[in-house]
């Protein structure tokens, strides 16, 4: 099995440690991982702003770089969901369609494909799990609170295998953090207020770390934590699952 | 309403009073939680949603036939039927009905359609006084403000503010803010209104094609009191309010109140079918853009809406920004997918007033894919040329850079390109990201750079 490692553009530039942890974690499970260096962006920043027609260049690059792999895995639910729902190619729609079905977010790849049952990881901290909306309601990584349906959570399942980690309970289990792509600047006031309220839910319930399968949410929450000189840190779930503290 | 400010600007103003926002957010979240509890007591809840959605699909696909069937049955029952193509035509019809009977005072129960049509203003300009009898709408009316929520019209107001309004308009003691006492005062005042009005208008929650009856749901019984005491009873409904058969009410009435407030059912679910002896009953079927929306394949399912307000209560953007920031009669997520159909230029900002979190679509009792429609409206708005020009230029630059790995890597040494070009990471005070949030720190090397070096190391070792 060869996996193409999909590292979203902003993760590549700002959160290389999450990308390294993803790579190492997959390798720990014996997966052959290749990082195609010519990848750029999933196209979501344009598409979510109404410019999906401008994201064709991104789409073709994804098809060129990832068609050869058995699976494609990325540490970002939002970018993975975007590819799953919107990847199309004028040049090679068949390959685009194949990518839409073989791309996975890291957590679901670990629980559903590799079927991880134990982890050699330790992280002796109190951790709040932030469900990214695209992971939750788009990829169904966990059961959303809106539905009358049985509960499950793939990220919690993995976090419960980490030694010493204490998962805190939030007042609002799965509320949006307010990042929303360009929303974070076009609706600055609402975005910040949503982010502040999410941060408060974690801090008042004793979190030392906030984790998620999406760094875009975490980048937003980190911006607010830093500005308010909070000691609470953000960490991508891959870094926890790969940690041997 | 002459509104030029965007949702972002109006929301920004609302958020300045953070204590109010927290309280507003908490009040609506409380209702969302009540809805969760109520829906989870019904084992077949998700099947009910699916059934409702499919019944409404059937209605939208066969609307022509159901409308004719409904009209024929209304006539059989002795109801006078009117068809209005536009809001103006609707208002003219109401006016002509009242004028023929020399009625110059009318009582009206909650009807978002008549708000949308601007009926009150239209009639008042022609010397007819209208009093809204739903308590929340009445409060909004005396404050000269539109409803901020379709189910809870004055949810953004505190009891002290309502006390002040009552002091000013109904002569209550200054400083009185006890909700029970205020409600009693309003009740006494409205009782007199009900007793003296010869004309009453109600909205319609569900119209049954097979019987020609319609159902009005309220908690206050105000629609009934107005209608029962009137000489002329008028009902205004959007074309989409039809359901095929009476038995389908067993699906919709179970969903409506649970979704709206977490109640098992509204206190009153009143069926109106025939005029009393000596009474005149009119029903106005209003299009006002609905058939145009039906023609938009991606957006026609928005017409399934039963106006429960669940998408507003669950929407974090709505809870933090208040309904009035949507500058449209129907606010919140559902308003944001209905409004661009009415006036795309004026409401071009509304589909962007969302993080696309998807909570709305999953509480919706008729399973409207609201967040997907928000995404699709954005594509339409850009293609029709209503996106702000600055945004268009930034997007082109971003698309150009992302379209070639070469451009991105030469531009992207330790994130320099990103620091200059991604909208949320430009490090200066003009950048909305930086106003209240710090930027991520740019590391010494990107993952890509590290990966290449690491690979070379591995190769040397081998």
Detail the topology: elements first, then pairings.
The complex is a heterodimer of chains A (245) and B (462).
Chain A: E1 2-5, H1 9-14, H2 16-28, E2 32-34, H3 44-47, H4 56-66, E3 71-74, H5 77-86, H6 93-102, E4 103-105, H7 106-113, E5 126-129, H8 133-138, H9 154-159, E6 166-167, H10 183-186, H11 188-204, E7 209-212, H12 215-227, E8 233-236, H13 237-241
Parallel strand pairs in A: 1-2, 1-3, 3-4, 5-6, 5-7, 7-8
Chain B: H1 7-15, H2 18-40, H3 45-61, H4 63-76, E1 80-84, H5 87-100, E2 105-108, H6 112-117, H7 119-125, E3 129-132, H8 135-142, H9 159-170, H10 179-196, E4 199-202, E5 206-208, E6 213-218, H11 222-228, E7 232-238, E8 242-243, H12 249-260, E9 268-272, E10 280-286, H13 290-294, H14 310-314, H15 316-321, H16 332-342, H17 359-363, H18 370-383, H19 389-402, H20 405-411, H21 416-421, H22 432-436, H23 447-461
Helix pairs in contact in B: 2-12, 3-12, 9-10, 16-18
Précis, in short:
Chain A has 245 residues and is α/β, with parallel strands linked by helices. Helix content of chain A is 46%, strand content 11%.
The biggest sheet of chain A amounts to: 4 strands, parallel
Task: Identify the most extensive interface between protein chains.
Answer: A-B, 74 and 78 residues
pLDDT averaged residue by residue of chain B = 92
Order of neighbouring strands in the sheet with most strands of chain B: 1-10-7-4-2-3
What is the β-strand count of chain B?
A: 10
Sequence stretches where pLDDT stays below 50 over 5 or more residues of chain A: none
Please tell me the overall pLDDT of chain A. 96
Quote the CATH topology of the largest domain in chain B: Rossmann fold
Task: Tell me, briefly, the overall form of chain B.
Answer: globular
Q: What is the number of domains of chain B?
A: 3
Helical content of chain A stands at 40-55%
Q: Which percent band covers the strand fraction of chain B?
A: 5-15%
Low-confidence stretches of chain B: none
Q: Count the DSSP helices of chain B.
A: 23
Total helix count of chain A? 13
Radius of gyration of chain B: 26 Å
Largest sheet of chain B: 6 strands, parallel
The class by helix and strand makeup of chain B works out as alpha/beta
| Cα-to-Cα separation, first versus last residue of chain B | 74 Å
């Amino acid at each position: 099995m060869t996996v193409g490692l999909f590292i979203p553009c902003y993760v590549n530039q700002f959160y290389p440690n999450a990308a390294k942890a993803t790579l190492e974690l997959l390798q720990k499970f014996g997966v052959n991982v290749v990082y195609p260096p010519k990848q750029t962006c999933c196209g979501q920043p344009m598409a979510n702003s109404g410019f999906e027609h401008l994201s064709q260049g991104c789409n073709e690059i994804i098809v060129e770089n990832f068609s050869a792999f058995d699976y494609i895995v990325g540490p970002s639910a939002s970018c993975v969901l975007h590819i799953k729902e919107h990847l199309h190619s004028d040049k090679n729609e068949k390959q685009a369609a194949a990518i839409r079905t073989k791309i996975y977010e890291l957590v679901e790849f670990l629980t559903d494909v590799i079927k991880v049952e134990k982890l050699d990881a330790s992280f002796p901290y109190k951790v709040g799990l932030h469900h990214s909306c695209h992971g939750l309601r788009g990829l169904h990584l966990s059961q959303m609170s809106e539905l009358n349906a049985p509960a499950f959570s793939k990220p919690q399942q993995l976090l419960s295998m980490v030694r010493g980690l204490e998962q805190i309970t939030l007042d609002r289990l799965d509320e949006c953090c307010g990042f929303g792509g360009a929303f974070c600047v076009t609706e600055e006031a609402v975005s910040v207020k949503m982010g502040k309220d999410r941060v408060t839910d974690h801090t008042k319930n004793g979190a030392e770390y906030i984790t998620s399968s999406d760094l875009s949410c975490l980048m937003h929450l980190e911006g607010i934590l830093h500005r308010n000189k909070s000691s609470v840190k953000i960490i991508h779930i891959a870094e926890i699952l790969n940690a041997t503290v | 309403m002459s509104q030029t400010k965007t949702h972002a600007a109006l929301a920004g103003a609302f958020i300045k009073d953070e204590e109010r926002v927290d309280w507003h957010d908490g009040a609506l979240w409380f209702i969302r939680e009540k809805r969760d509890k109520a829906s989870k007591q019904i084992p077949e809840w998700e099947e009910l949603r699916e059934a409702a959605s499919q019944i409404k699909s059937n209605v939208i696909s066969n609307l022509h036939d159901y409308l004719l069937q409904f009209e024929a049955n209304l006539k059989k029952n002795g109801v006078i039927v009117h068809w209005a193509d536009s809001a103006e035509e609707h208002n003219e019809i109401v006016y002509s009905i009242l004028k023929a009977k020399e009625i110059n005072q009318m009582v009206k129960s909650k009807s978002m359609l008549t708000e949308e049509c601007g009926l009150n203003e239209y009639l008042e300009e022609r010397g007819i006084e209208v009093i809204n009898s739903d308590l929340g709408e009445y409060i909004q009316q005396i404050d000269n403000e539109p409803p901020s929520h379709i189910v809870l019209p004055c949810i953004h107001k505190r009891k002290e503010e309502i006390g002040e309004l009552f002091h000013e308009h109904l002569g209550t003691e200054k400083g009185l803010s006890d909700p029970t006492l205020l409600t009693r005062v309003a009740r006494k005042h409205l009782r007199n209104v009900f007793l003296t009005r010869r004309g009453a208008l109600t909205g319609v929650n569900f119209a049954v094609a097979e019987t020609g009856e319609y159902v009005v749901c309220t908690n206050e019984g105000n629609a009934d009191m107005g209608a029962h005491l009137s000489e002329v009873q008028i009902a205004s409904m959007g074309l989409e309010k039809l359901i095929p058969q009476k038995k389908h009410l067993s699906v919709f009435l179970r969903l409506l109140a649970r979704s709206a407030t977490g109640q098992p059912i509204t206190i009153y679910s009143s069926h109106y079918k025939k005029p009393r002896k000596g009474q005149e009953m009119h029903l106005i079927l209003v299009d006002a853009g609905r058939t145009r929306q039906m023609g938009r394949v991606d957006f026609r399912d928005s017409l399934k809406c039963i106006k429960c307000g669940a998408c507003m209560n669950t929407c974090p953007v709505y809870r933090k920004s208040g309904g009035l920031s949507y500058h449209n009669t129907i606010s919140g997520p559902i308003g944001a997918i209905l409004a661009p159909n009415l006036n795309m230029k004026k409401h071009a900002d509304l589909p962007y007033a969302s993080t696309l979190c998807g909570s709305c679509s999953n509480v919706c009792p008729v399973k409207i894919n609201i967040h997907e429609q928000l995404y699709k409206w954005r594509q339409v708005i850009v293609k029709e040329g209503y996106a702000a020009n600055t945004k268009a230029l930034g997007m082109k630059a971003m698309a150009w850079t992302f379209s070639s790995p070469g451009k991105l890597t030469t531009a992207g040494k330790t994130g320099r390109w990103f620091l200059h070009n991604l909208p949320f990471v430009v490090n200066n005070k003009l950048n909305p990201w930086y106003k209240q949030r710090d930027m991520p720190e740019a590391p010494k090397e990107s993952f890509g750079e590290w990966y290449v070096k690491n690979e070379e190391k591995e190769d040397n070792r081998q």
